[in-house]
Amino acid sequence: MFNRISIFTGNAHPKLAKDIAKYLGGKISPALVSRFSDGEVRVKIEENVRGKDVFVVQPTSPPVNENLMELLIMIDALKRASARRITAVIPYFGYARQDRKDQPRVPITAKLVANLLTVAGADRVLTLDLHAGQIQGFFDIPLDHLYAINVFVEYFSKKLKNNLVVVSPDVGGIKMARAYAKRLSAGLAIVDKRRNSPDSTSAIHILGEVEGKNCVLVDDIIATGSSLIEAAKALKRAKSKDIYAAVTHGVLSKDAVKKIENSDIKQLVITDSIPLPPEKRSLKIKVVSVASLLGEAIKRIHEEKSISILFEF
Predict the structure, then answer these.
(1) What is the pLDDT of residue 203?
(2) Structural domains in the chain (count)
(3) How far apart are CA 216 and CA 25, in angstroms?
(4) Domain co-membership, 198 together with 281
(5) Which domain holds residue 118?
(6) Has residue 90 got a pLDDT over 90?
(7) Are 124 and 224 found together in one domain?
(8) Are residues 74 and 35 in the same domain?
(9) Catalytic residue of the set 182, 193, 280, 286
(10) How far apart are CA 200 and CA 68, in angstroms?
(11) How far apart are CA 278 and CA 137, in angstroms?
(12) How many Cβ atoms sit within 10 Å of the Cβ of residue 81?
């Protein structure tokens, strides 16, 4: 297959790209992605890609602007090198939290990034657990949206076999929590909260039965960790047993790791959609891989097969 496809990566998450290539039985294609003396991104594709099906693996995780520019410039370089099709594989789609005008005079950055990717020359996008489902409609090119639910369900079905409740940390996450509860054959609960500021929340009460139960909080992104920690406090006050959290994208900004370590959360399980640097590692944080999920999706996209089978459990 690697006679017909090439997998490239920038500096955002080379390990994930290598794991994807390994799953597919090949290696990362060589490319120079560095900086000029003034800080501008320098890219050179170091193999012939004319007529090839090309995949660029690059989450737009922190530093977001650097990684986004690398992705855009790599796509432009591949387009000018006459690649047949370019798929941007973006495990974590940055700028997704600004997906609508909820205040006067604010941008819709999710749409802006979608436009940038299209103009740069991407023919297709493959991503994982978007912050808001409507972002799929911001693209004028095909977008394949994967979910990490099966990776988490596989992990927790072995770790917690019964007495389990899946908890949504806010009303907006009910749909996701319901899907987890169904696949884990677990109960469902919701934390009713009010947001004090963009980075601060105050949990009010629990909707659902959690007393004496093992709880799994599910969400798509953990940045500062305030929402999950407040939800865990509310669950503890409601006399729940052990509290776990399953979050797809572990941004873990500011002092989030320290706050998690001092919280009521027994274990935070995240995916490797974003690299976890050594300074953010903790005994409370478990990383599960989505390399095989993304690898299988890449294989099916290349072979023009349906990827809906990846949603089945």
Answers:
(1) 52
(2) 2
(3) 35
(4) yes
(5) 5-147+291-311
(6) yes
(7) no
(8) yes
(9) 193
(10) 27
(11) 36
(12) 16
Q: pLDDT category, 172, cuts 50, 70, 90?
A: confident
Q: What are phi and psi of 104, to 5 degrees?
A: -70, 145
User: What CATH number has the domain bearing residue 96?
Assistant: 3.40.50.2020
Close Cβ partners of 14 (under 8 Å, ≥ 6 residues apart): 28
Residue 44 catalytic? Answer: no
Structure token digits, residue 293: 């999920």
Q: Does residue 166 sit in the same domain as residue 143? A: no
Does one domain contain both 137 and 208? no
Confidence of residue 202 (pLDDT cuts 50, 70, 90): low
d(CA 243, CA 164): 10
Residues 253 and 299 in one domain: no
